[in-house]
Amino acid sequence: MNRVQVIGHRISGGVRKVPTWPVYLLGLLPPAWLLYEGITGGLGVDPVKVMEHQLGIWALQLLLAGLCITPLMRFARLNLLKFRRAVGLLAFLYILFHLVVWLVLDIQLRWGEIWADIVKRPYITVGMAAFVLAIPLVATSWNGAVRRLGAATWGKLHQLTYVIVLLGAVHFIMQEKVWTIESLLYLGLGIGLVGLRLPKLVGRLRARSDQKLTPG
């Protein structure tokens, strides 16, 4: 192991002793703080837009953080796998908060306007697609779902995470309406993290194809 891997391995030893519940607790603090700031007038003249925007950014950051866990294990021997589920569930929760702020506080549940926006505004269409794709992942995030689906099927389903991350990054760029360094960094990081997994995914597809072509 190189120096980075040695450090990562040592950190992993300490991380194993840390329970997952503090991750959930810490993950709920930013939305609570944001709500408090909105109520007390700390978010400026348009607190709803600030809340909506910030929750969306945090959701995207958590999605990207979740994709970083496997490369950190692979290249730096930093084992954070026990926290991957917590990060994923928090990411979905932030997406849900982002959606609720838009539906309830921004659009104020005017359903005709909501459906019109989803159809006519591409960035909202992309964002809603990411949310819908995330629902089955959350629904199967518990251990019983892995046993019922089988590890292979469960793994294939959760590859939707890659699509969700890319859709989230595109949604962010489209709603910004201009190409910013921040939005490009998120998109580039998302593409890079998904790209790291492509050789393995292609290898699996080829192996399955060879198995089907091989006479029984």
Automatic annotation (TrEMBL):
Coiled coil regions in record: none
Gene: yedZ
Name of the protein: Protein-methionine-sulfoxide reductase heme-binding subunit MsrQ
Role according to the record: Part of the MsrPQ system that repairs oxidized periplasmic proteins containing methionine sulfoxide residues (Met-O), using respiratory chain electrons. Thus protects these proteins from oxidative-stress damage caused by reactive species of oxygen and chlorine generated by the host defense mechanisms. MsrPQ is essential for the maintenance of envelope integrity under bleach stress, rescuing a wide series of structurally unrelated periplasmic proteins from methionine oxidation.
Domain Ferric oxidoreductase: 55-168
Organism of origin: Thalassobacter stenotrophicus
Cofactor(s) the record lists: heme b; FMN
Its membrane topology: Multi-pass membrane protein
Alphabetic keyword roster: Cell membrane, Electron transport, Flavoprotein, FMN, Heme, Iron, Membrane, Metal-binding, Transmembrane, Transmembrane helix, Transport
